[in-house]
């Protein structure tokens, strides 16, 4: 089969194993969503999987979360579609609608029923190197060529990916998933922490003084704390603290290629999208969102529920619940007003200015 | 020898092995470029190598592709210089000119004659871990500590770098080159695909719903398709699809530290320069160029042959063949007009505004 | 102990081993700083460690470098505080003040006394793969699963981290520290070079010509030279030269996730902060600072002591000693004047423009 003939239906069996099928009754019960309108076969049909609107079949479940895709809803063959109340009447007649105020959450729950997370397969691969003074729960899975040094503690049912290196003294809670090629040092992890491949956690921060003959490194003697349910994306980097700790608060999620400087302290359920960077000693409250490629200077404070837009350059404190964008950062409304004003003014100067 | 005394002539024999020498007749035949003016010894001289204008000798070949370097052309000792027709008469008398409308392409061809790509040295290094259910062509080279899991297929004459991890079910075509420390999962690769060191391909996209107690992950059940001749730079990250596939089209090239979100679909021969990022579900046509550090939001479409400038922030569709820059993105001309207008206006307000 | 109860005092003994204690006499002698005012017990007290102002105890040393933290100075319990002359009289009565014109440098020196760098523990881990033609000083430490290929030379007392791959012909000076998971090829390193985990040094630059059927790679036949005392951050990427060398000058420091294109030549003691990128063939003088997320196009020159601001987009040469910011780059003063002017003008147009 050539690559052009690849089947693009999700859940390719080469990579994923599927659970189910599930009855509608079970799915309604598990998600709390409401079935409407009832279809004749609602009691007997078994749903075998999930798929996007454009490829789903009559025994598959799909969802609509972005009104941009309403044209696809009109043509879907999905047997069941998860939608918000506003779109319930847009679901085609041949499909049932599973209505909920949070379609994406119901989709998450149903998708997880069909594709539950892999569990740890207890055991240490014979090629891994484990220091005799490491303490590893027997339920932990350690993959090929992992390196686990002295006085590391790893709690139950963790998965330690191939080629990952865990340095002396690192503490890891339960049910954590550490990807491949991760570097982990000077760190304490809570439960259910997920680190994707190539994440670098705990290296020295970028700290040095200027001496007579060049730069002089400053020992970085803090650590990294990743609280429960934190996720860190592929190839992201989190420096350990210089004299305090770098702390990523409970439930926060960092995307790929994110940089976190030393001493950064982040509250609960923050989101940091790919290629954003947070400089040293900056503090984030809870539920802060930092969009892609945004950058924050050091030693500032971002209030709870603040949202920092993509590519934003933040040079001073941001108040709770505010939305900023631009470089330097300003309120969303002001930024777009400025942009529109400048475009209009420059355009109207055309006759006079062009040469 | 101290590091200050390093020889900066290219092709250092510690790192490169050189083919040749080649006669001018052979080089002309292989490249289709035209020799002018003929030199007396054109039939007998053998060229032994290539070098930049400033260090090339009389048996070496050089090239001029950027008029910025014309002063170097005037002083070169190179025996042969590849140039565009416009610069043919600028080549010094002691050198011959190899004239072509595409000097950089001819340079590529000649450089490849002297420095052909390494071929796979068939065999699996004894330290590698190969799952018994992997299917690997006997011509493949597998370097130390590579990990290849069950049901992976690898076609002929591929090179799998040291410490690379290839997860269950991954399909790799022929003549692919996978660097060191690569993580590769949930992926199907065509022929002649090149992945540089530290690339992360196929991990979960950044997809989660907001639940009562925090974020809820959404199983990501698509895959990554890298079509023929795709190249992915060092430490770049390509997330697998959520419900569709993430697709990088034939011949496209991604530089280092690039981020590609889930479900991105890229056409043929696109270029994505270092540290650029493309958010989930965005689609690129063919021959699109995304310059360094540009960022594209999700769910938009970039037309064929469009060019997105460095650091550009793209928040909406871009038409085919258009050039955009700025954050938010606008046409090149408008952007630079706005910049010039603002600078002029702010400057002229100097007397009144300064305090 | 749950993660919430973690002790955030620096120097956690699970990760760090501490030297000392030290007398004030010794510290004054080692640093050249001046003790003032003298305390009664100055001759007899021994200082046992270092800590930030808010947690330091009477036998610990702290420092103030940023006036933002003056409120913490007023309340500190530290026995000794390193300060600039201007703040000497702000040190609480119960503390002694160690006064110096460069508090951060004195802090670096004292911190290094308490936490000296780890020394190489001579020996090759039995799981490492060393090619028989590699030449490694017997004082070198080689950690698990490192791969060192033919004709690599490594000088005395280097540390080669777990899982690092050093390709054919690479030359490494003395006292270098190579982190985990580093890829190192086509490179010559001076003494005391530090590479953090996941750094990719020496891969092909992003060089290709446009042919009839797609892109044609150009062999990259230069190398990477990292001079003495260079540091490269985690997951940063430095491409080798195409026909010249990529050179990072003595004492320069690159932060995490930095991209350096082929043929870049950087002078002495430059600083490149995280997520910044420098395109091919650009040259930096000495003591240049490139702030976070800045981007430089190729083939330009940045003068000595120039400073490029965060997120700056540099499209042309920058003069020595100048400060630029913005995208496109302009002088600091002009940039902020433009920003202020636009905000004011757009605001004053409010009545007329809003709809």
Automatic annotation (TrEMBL), chains A, B, C:
Pathway: Bacterial outer membrane biogenesis; LPS lipid A biosynthesis. It comes from the Bacteria. Residues 131-240 form the Mannose-1-phosphate guanyltransferase C-terminal domain. One of its GO terms (molecular function) is UDP-3-O-[(3R)-3-hydroxyacyl]-glucosamine N-acyltransferase activity. The keyword Lipid biosynthesis applies. It holds the Pfam family GMPPB_C. InterPro entries: GMPPB_C, LpxD, Trimer_LpxA-like_sf, UDP_GlcNAc_AcTrfase_non-rep. Gene3D superfamilies: Hexapeptide repeat proteins (2.160.10.10), MurE/MurF, N-terminal domain (3.40.1390.10). It catalyses: a UDP-3-O-[(3R)-3-hydroxyacyl]-alpha-D-glucosamine + a (3R)-hydroxyacyl-[ACP] = a UDP-2-N,3-O-bis[(3R)-3-hydroxyacyl]-alpha-D-glucosamine + holo-[ACP] + H(+). The active site is at 262 (proton acceptor). Keywords: Acyltransferase, Lipid A biosynthesis, Lipid biosynthesis, Lipid metabolism, Repeat, Transferase. Its EC number is 2.3.1.191. The keyword Transferase applies. Residues 45-113 form the UDP-3-O-[3-hydroxymyristoyl] glucosamine N-acyltransferase non-repeat region domain. Belongs to the transferase hexapeptide repeat family. LpxD subfamily. Homotrimer. Catalyzes the N-acylation of UDP-3-O-acylglucosamine using 3-hydroxyacyl-ACP as the acyl donor. Is involved in the biosynthesis of lipid A, a phosphorylated glycolipid that anchors the lipopolysaccharide to the outer membrane of the cell. NCBIfam families: lipid_A_lpxD, PRK00892.1. This is UDP-3-O-acylglucosamine N-acyltransferase. It comes from Commensalibacter nepenthis. The lineage of its organism: Bacteria, Pseudomonadati, Pseudomonadota, Alphaproteobacteria, Acetobacterales.
């Amino acid at each position: 089969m050539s690559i052009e003939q690849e089947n693009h239906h999700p859940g390719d069996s080469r990579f994923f194993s599927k659970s189910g099928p599930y009855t509608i009754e079970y799915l309604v019960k598990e998600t709390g969503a409401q079935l409407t309108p009832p279809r004749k076969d609602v009691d007997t049909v078994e749903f075998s999987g999930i798929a996007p609107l454009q490829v789903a079949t009559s025994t598959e479940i799909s969802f609509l979360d972005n009104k941009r895709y309403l044209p696809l809803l009109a043509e879907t063959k999905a047997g069941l579609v998860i939608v918000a109340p506003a779109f319930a009447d847009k679901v085609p007649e041949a499909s049932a609608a599973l209505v909920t105020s949070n379609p994406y959450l119901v989709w998450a729950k149903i998708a997880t029923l069909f594709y539950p997370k892999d569990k740890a397969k207890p055991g240490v691969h014979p090629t891994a190197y484990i220091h005799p003074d490491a303490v590893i729960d027997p339920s932990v899975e350690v993959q090929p060529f992992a390196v686990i040094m002295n006085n590391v503690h790893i709690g139950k049912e963790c998965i330690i990916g191939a080629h990952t290196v865990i340095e002396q003294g690192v503490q890891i809670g339960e049910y954590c998933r550490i990807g491949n090629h991760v570097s982990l040092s000077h760190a304490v992890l809570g439960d259910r922490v997920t680190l994707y491949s190539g994440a670098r956690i705990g290296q020295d921060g970028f700290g040095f003084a200027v001496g007579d003959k060049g730069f002089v490194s400053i020992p970085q003697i803090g650590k990294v704390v990743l609280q429960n349910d934190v996720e860190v994306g592929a190839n992201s980097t989190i420096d350990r603290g210089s004299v305090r700790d770098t702390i990523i608060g409970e439930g926060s999620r960092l995307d790929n290629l994110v940089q976190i400087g030393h001493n950064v302290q982040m509250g609960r359920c923050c989101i940091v999208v790919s290629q954003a960077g947070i400089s040293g000693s900056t503090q984030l409250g809870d539920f802060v969102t930092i969009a892609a490629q945004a950058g924050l200077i050091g030693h500032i404070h971002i209030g709870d529920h603040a949202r920092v837009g993509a590519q934003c350059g933040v040079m001073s404190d941001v108040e709770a619940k505010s939305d900023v964008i631009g470089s330097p950062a300003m309120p969303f409304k002001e930024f777009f007003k400025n942009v529109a004003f400048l475009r209009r003014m420059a355009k109207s100067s055309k006759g006079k200015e062009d040469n």
